[in-house]
Design the sequence.
């Protein structure tokens, strides 16, 4: 996460990875650029395009979550509500009311953000362990309400008919969303925009406050920072990104499964962030990639994917709390 | 609303609340001493129901299963604490939480694999079937038994904590771990036992709830959320809070489902939201414990 | 001289459950002075400090700042009022550099929810941080992580961080804790110099250190105000002598 030269003064570990240090150093410093480069070539690396799109979407979802957990230090178990409301918030207008995508997408984000404001307000009134419990409980409320509103959301069967077959920009260009590659690169444009904004947030004065808050909350308060309000704001920002991911998900799948709101989805995004490395910029996408690839492979072998997830969780927590990218960064003392 | 109806709803709420009390109690006990939020707590509840169902199936004796369940579930819990949770002490407040979450997933899936996804039957024991005439209303015998059983467990726990030297160590350890260690107590052993007791109580709740809720793998999932709500309302780490809040949530649910059934499930969340607005630390929570 | 005290307490008491830490403490701190709060261990100095600095509200009584009642004001508002504090046990941002520690503290006065500007463009904050580090003598260590500083340097950094909010009142809780006699004397010199810019209230349990530099001294004992006056008055105070002579200071 170093953006200045603090790492330079540290004692270097002359280990086997020493040779690649300059490369990783460069990546860490030009993080947005490299993330974009990686994502541009991703469709050609992934086994199939739909998986690549999922990586984009869940990477964005995890990025939003990472803001709250990795950077602000709050463990949220309720991000499924933000993701799911983004999905339903975009999907329902399209499927039930015939809204065009360019209205439905921002609408989905808006609904998710509103939920973020409300859930965040209640949750940040209680910190530490309570936070996880309250976010879980409140997101279950959302799940329950959506589940019951069958007339609007399709309830248990999910929302169907979110079809956006093509996008025409200003009547000039027409893009066929049924073609996976086109879909991927269109979504990628939105993701890149989101990445850029996220990067700006981290580099802003607010980003510095989040760092401080994570380090020492008491000190931050003594300096004059309203800890609760800062956390609430971070949560709201996070819901913008996670909600956007949800909205894109609805368009990508053309359906919205009720599982998007289930608390297992909250666990999945947590898992991705942990896997990749919390508090790192690249981590969420690495985590999304590894998780989705793993799921793809394992699901062929066994139906008990949740068991694998559970074991993965336990192993990660016990032995690799920094995640893949985070551990790499740590070993290289970046 | 007549008095009869009021009392009926009240008692139904108390029976429902009894389950909440037991689950939240275990959770609070574990948190109070170990500072861990056991995200697998709902699955230990579920385990209790399954162990009870199998014991009942093998022996045909409900009372025996009430004895076997806490021993087995407590034992499993202690194994988990010793080998999975213990290594994480001191690593930060989130790690044990996350680990127990993963553990919960594993337990759930293992049960699905071993016992199937459809669930197993669990009939109300004949002795406790039927209703009893309480003058104002007829009340299911089993639910009355539930309230009674919970009271007995509470009493047993109270005696353990307040009247035995072991309970003294537990209470002291909850206040200040270092002192207890300096006094020569093996705090690891205490953690082990407390974790075991905490999940054992959840297990008993599971088998007690089985005739009413049924026994199936996902039964523990909503229980975790319910336990959290009760704990937030009552105050984390407070055993009295767990009791009062559990009964309060149960009674609230009961009355709401009479007047306004669709809102019944949401009523406990409304309660939680109110507590968060007006008294974020919970009714009996210690100020500054967490925030 | 202004007759409104910069900080005053009226009948302040504090209870922790069954334990009474402070009772009925009424004092006034006047602008420009260096006041020391002393007392034997367990006298309630830290509790009083915490009430003054906003860590928690008193159970009884009021705290006034420039005549306004600020009892119960949350901690984070204090620096914005003009009251800054340092902690007894060093409380910094360990994985941030010394410079960033101070810069972040200074930023609290300027920008708290800005998510768009690039941090570097707020160069006046960086300059201010450099200046403050210079004042406490830590310029050479500006790029070192706070966790890697020596204990005495960390205490100095605490002070720089507190100064970042341009306080009218600087509250210091045992600033020389854990320091060698030379370091402690250097710290006291620094504090004297700072007193030229702002009022200073400091808690100390080493009486000798504060005798020479304080304008006024407040003595607490068993949570109550025992004595208040100039160093000379305190030195000759019967009660104070009685309380202290039984202890090795």
Sequence:
């Amino acid at each position: 996460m170093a953006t200045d030269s603090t790492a330079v003064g540290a004692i270097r570990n002359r280990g086997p990875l020493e040779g690649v240090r300059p490369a990783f150093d460069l990546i860490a410093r030009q993080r947005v650029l490299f993330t974009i480069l990686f994502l541009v070539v991703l469709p050609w690396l992934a086994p199939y395009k739909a998986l690549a799109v999922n990586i984009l979407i869940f990477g964005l979802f995890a990025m939003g979550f990472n803001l709250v957990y990795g950077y602000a230090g709050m463990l949220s178990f309720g991000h499924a509500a933000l993701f799911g409301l983004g999905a339903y918030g975009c999907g329902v207008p399209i499927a039930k009311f015939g809204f065009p995508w360019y209205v439905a997408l921002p609408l989905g984000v808006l609904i998710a953000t509103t939920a973020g404001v409300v859930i965040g307000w209640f949750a940040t009134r209680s910190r530490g362990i309570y936070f996880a419990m309250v976010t879980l409980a409140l997101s279950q409320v959302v799940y329950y309400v959506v589940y019951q509103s069958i007339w609007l959301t399709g309830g248990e069967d999910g929302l169907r008919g979110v079809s956006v077959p093509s996008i025409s920009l200003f009547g000039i260009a027409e893009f066929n969303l049924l073609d996976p590659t086109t879909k991927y690169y269109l979504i990628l444009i939105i993701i890149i925009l989101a990445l850029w904004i996220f990067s700006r947030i981290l580099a802003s004065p607010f980003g510095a406050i989040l760092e401080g808050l994570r380090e020492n909350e008491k000190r931050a308060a003594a300096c004059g920072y309203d800890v609760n309000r800062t956390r609430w704001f971070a949560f709201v920002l996070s819901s913008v990104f996670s909600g956007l991911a949800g909205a894109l998900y609805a368009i990508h799948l053309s359906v919205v499964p009720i599982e998007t709101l289930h608390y297992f989805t909250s666990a999945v995004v947590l898992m991705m962030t942990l896997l990749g490395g919390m508090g790192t910029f690249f981590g969420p996408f690495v985590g999304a990639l590894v998780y989705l690839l793993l799921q793809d492979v394992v699901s062929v072998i066994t139906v008990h994917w949740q068991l694998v997830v559970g074991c993965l969780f336990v192993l990660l927590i016990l032995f690799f709390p920094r995640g893949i990218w985070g551990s790499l960064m740590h070993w290289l003392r970046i | 609303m007549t008095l009869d109806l009021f009392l009926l709803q009240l008692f139904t709420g108390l029976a429902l609340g009894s389950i909440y009390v037991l689950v939240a109690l275990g959770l609070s006990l574990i948190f109070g001493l170990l500072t861990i939020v056991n995200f697998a707590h709902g699955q230990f509840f579920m385990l209790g129901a399954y162990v009870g169902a199998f014991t009942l199936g093998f022996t045909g004796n409900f009372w025996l299963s009430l004895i076997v369940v806490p021993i087995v579930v407590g034992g499993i819990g202690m194994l988990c604490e010793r080998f999975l949770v213990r290594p994480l002490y001191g690593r930060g407040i989130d790690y044990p939480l996350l680990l127990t979450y993963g553990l919960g997933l594993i337990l759930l899936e293992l049960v699905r694999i071993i016992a199937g996804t459809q669930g197993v039957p669990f009939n109300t024991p004949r002795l406790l079937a039927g209703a009893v005439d309480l003058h104002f209303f007829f009340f299911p015998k089993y639910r009355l038994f539930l309230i009674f059983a919970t009271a007995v467990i509470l009493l047993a726990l109270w005696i353990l904590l307040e009247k035995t030297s072991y309970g003294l160590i537990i209470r002291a350890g909850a206040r200040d771990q270092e002192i207890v260690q300096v006094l020569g107590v093996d705090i690891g052993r205490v953690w082990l036992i407390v974790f075991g007791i905490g999940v054992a109580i959840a297990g008993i709740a599971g088998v007690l709830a089985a005739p009413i809720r049924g026994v199936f793998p996902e039964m523990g999932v909503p229980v975790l959320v319910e336990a959290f709500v009760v704990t937030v309302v009552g105050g984390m780490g407070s055993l009295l809070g767990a009791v009062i809040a559990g009964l309060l949530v149960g009674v609230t649910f009961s009355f709401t489902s009479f007047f306004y059934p669709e809102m019944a499930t949401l009523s406990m969340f409304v309660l939680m939201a109110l507590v968060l607005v007006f008294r974020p630390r919970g009714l009996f929570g210690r100020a500054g414990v967490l925030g | 001289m202004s007759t409104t005290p910069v900080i005053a307490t009226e009948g302040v008491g504090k209870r922790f459950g069954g334990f009474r830490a402070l009772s009925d403490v009424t004092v006034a701190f006047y602008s420009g002075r260096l006041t020391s709060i002393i007392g034997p261990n367990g006298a309630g100095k830290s509790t009083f400090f915490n009430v003054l600095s906003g860590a928690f509200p008193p159970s009884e009584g009021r705290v006034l700042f420039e005549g306004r009642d600020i009892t119960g004001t949350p901690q984070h508002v204090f620096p914005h009022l003009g009251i800054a504090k340092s902690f007894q046990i060093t409380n910094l941002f360990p994985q941030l550099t010394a410079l960033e520690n101070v810069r972040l503290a200074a930023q609290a006065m300027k920008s708290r929810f800005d998510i768009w500007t690039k941090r570097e463009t707020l160069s006046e904050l960086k300059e201010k941080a450099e200046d403050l580090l210079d004042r406490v003598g830590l310029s050479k260590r500006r790029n070192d992580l706070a966790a890697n500083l020596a204990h005495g340097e960390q205490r100095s950094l605490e002070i720089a961080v507190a100064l970042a909010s341009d306080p009218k009142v600087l509250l210091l809780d045992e600033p020389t804790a854990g320091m060698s006699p030379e370091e402690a004397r250097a710290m006291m010199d620094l504090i004297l110099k700072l007193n030229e810019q702002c009022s200073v209230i400091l808690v100390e349990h080493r009486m000798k250190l504060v005798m020479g530099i304080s304008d006024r001294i407040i003595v607490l004992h068993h949570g109550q105000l025992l004595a208040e006056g100039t160093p000379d008055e305190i030195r000759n105070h019967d009660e104070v002598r009685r309380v202290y002579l039984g202890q090795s200071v």
Residues 1-13 of chain A have pLDDT under 50 and may be disordered. The longest helix of chain A spans residues 227-253.
